[in-house]
Design a protein that fits this description.
Layout lengths: L6 E5 L2 H4 L12 H4 L2 H4 L2 H6 L1 H14 L7 H12 L4 E5 L5 H4 L5 E3 L2 E8 L5 E3 L18 E5 L9 H10 L2 E5 L11 H7 L3 E6 L11 E4 L2 H9 L1
Parallel strand pairs: 1-2, 1-7, 2-3, 7-8, 8-9
Antiparallel strand pairs: 4-5, 4-6
Bound molecules: ligand BV8.
């Protein structure tokens, strides 16, 4: 680690699995119970907003029943102690990184605890169901939607992410299947700028072959072992 200064870490649903949050593609995962095109696209929301709001209301309510795990807490410790640049990017819409103690996490696919006005773009913290949401507090339009990035929509803060990848000495991917872009392409971006690349995942992923090193195991063990 001596020559490592700038680190970019990407996390996915696998880091929250041991906290009891369903992943997407694993057995019994979200995409087994729901079709992406029914609940996670702008077209689905236009077609059946109640179904989509219900899907996210259930996931938002479930947040109150789960706690961060050792992997979340280890990353908070790393953030507090790392003397150089560290950017933590998550594809997760849960708040377990923050509750695990991380001060600055970039939610590239949005957050369950935030509502977005489809009319004026205003954001507001939201922890209840959105199905019976009042109008937007800023513009009064009845257009509040989950502040998450659906398929076909541009992820958040891509400029900040690509800038950090271009400066990275080390890129670490934790608990993601590498099935969804542009996140699945970050390892190649980092490698192209000369960074070392490490994958920590329960099993080999669609992108494992892009990494210098891929370690298999549970995030709750692999991440503390890597941080300490
Ligand atoms: C399905 C896929 C082929 N489709 C896409 O990638 C699409 C289309 C596309 C764009 N570019 C492409 C290039 C090629 C092909 C397709 C595309 N991408 C988009 O539409 C994106 C938007 C995608 C975002 C969609 N929203 C999500 N989530 C928020 C909502 C919600 O949460 O409901 S995606 C969602 O699924 C993704 C994958 O999930 P993972 O987190 O990886 O979870 P998964 O279940 O798949 O895997 C879990 C892993 O953990 C491991 N694991 C399990 N337990 C543990 C454990 N205990 N410990 C460790 N590991 C564990 C398992 O082994 C497994 O490997 C995450 O990103 C997650 O956020 N937008 C876009 O491209 O805009 C334009 C653009 C253009 C230019 C530049 C930029 C943008």
């Amino acid at each position: 680690m001596a020559d490592i200064r700038n680190i970019v870490i990407l996390t996915g649903a696998g880091i929250s699995a041991e906290s009891g949050i369903d992943t997407f593609r694993d057995a019994g995962g979200l995409w087994e119970k729901h079709r992406i095109e029914d609940v996670a696209t702008p077209e689905a929301f236009a077609r059946n907003p109640a179904l989509v709001q219900g899907f996210y209301d259930a996931r938002r309510a479930a947040l109150a029943t789960v706690e961060p795990n050792a992997a979340h807490r280890s990353l908070a410790r790393l953030e507090a102690e790392w003397p150089h640049e560290l950017l933590l990017v998550t594809q997760n819409v849960d708040d377990l990184h923050e509750r695990g103690g991380v001060q600055d996490v970039l939610h590239m696919h949005g957050e369950l605890l935030s509502a977005l006005c489809g009319a004026c773009g205003a954001r507001s913290r939201w922890d209840g169901p959105l199905s019976d949401a009042p109008a937007c507090l800023a513009c009064g339009a009845p257009a509040l939607r989950p502040d998450v990035v659906w398929f076909g929509e541009m992820p958040y803060q891509m400029r900040r992410i690509y800038d950090a990848l271009a400066r990275a000495d080390l890129f670490v991917s934790i608990g993601t299947s590498g099935a969804v872009y542009p996140a699945a392409g970050f390892v190649q971006e980092a490698a192209a700028s000369g960074a070392r690349t490490l994958e920590l995942n329960l099993e080999r992923s669609e992108g494992s072959h892009w990494f210098d090193e891929s370690r298999q195991g549970r995030a709750g063990e692999l991440v503390p072992a890597w941080v300490d």
